[in-house]
């Protein structure tokens, strides 16, 4: 049985003489073979298109995987940098606190020294006044 030529009943061939002529002359077979070649070419073109698209999909997947890896590297680098910066800030805060304590201590020491200097001045004036009074008292007794 020939699969390329459709099976036609005798009645169909008698009522359609053009179809009967096409079948007997081989025109119909040539048309079917042409159509089959066209379909095969279309199939090959579509398969090539699918292969091209699959290649594009594979390249895109590889690109995305590389981007994920790059992003992970950047995340790790940023975490490390953030850790270093936090340490720097902590150290700067500690130093600032030390400077503040030292400044406070120095201010207190300065105030204490100023009080002592003022006290010494007052004491010196008092001593001077006492000495002057004693000197005058001695002069008064000597007369």
TrEMBL record:
Residues 1-25 are annotated as: Disordered. The keyword Coiled coil applies. Residues 29-109 form a coiled coil. It comes from the Eukaryota. Keywords: Coiled coil. This is Hypp1251 protein.
């Amino acid at each position: 049985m020939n699969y390329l030529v459709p099976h036609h009943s005798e009645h169909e061939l008698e009522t359609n003489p053009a179809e009967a002529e096409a079948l007997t002359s081989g025109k119909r077979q040539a048309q079917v073979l042409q159509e089959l070649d066209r379909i095969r070419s279309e199939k090959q073109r579509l398969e090539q298109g699918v292969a091209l698209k699959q290649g594009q999909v594979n390249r895109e997947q590889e690109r995305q995987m590389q981007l994920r890896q790059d992003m992970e590297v950047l995340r790790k680098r940023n975490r490390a940098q953030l850790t270093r910066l936090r340490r720097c800030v902590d150290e700067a805060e500690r130093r600032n606190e030390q400077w503040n304590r030292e400044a406070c201590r120095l201010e207190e020491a300065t105030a204490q020294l100023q009080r002592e200097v003022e006290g010494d001045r007052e004491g010196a004036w008092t001593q001077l006044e006492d000495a002057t009074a004693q000197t005058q008292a001695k002069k008064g007794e000597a007369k």
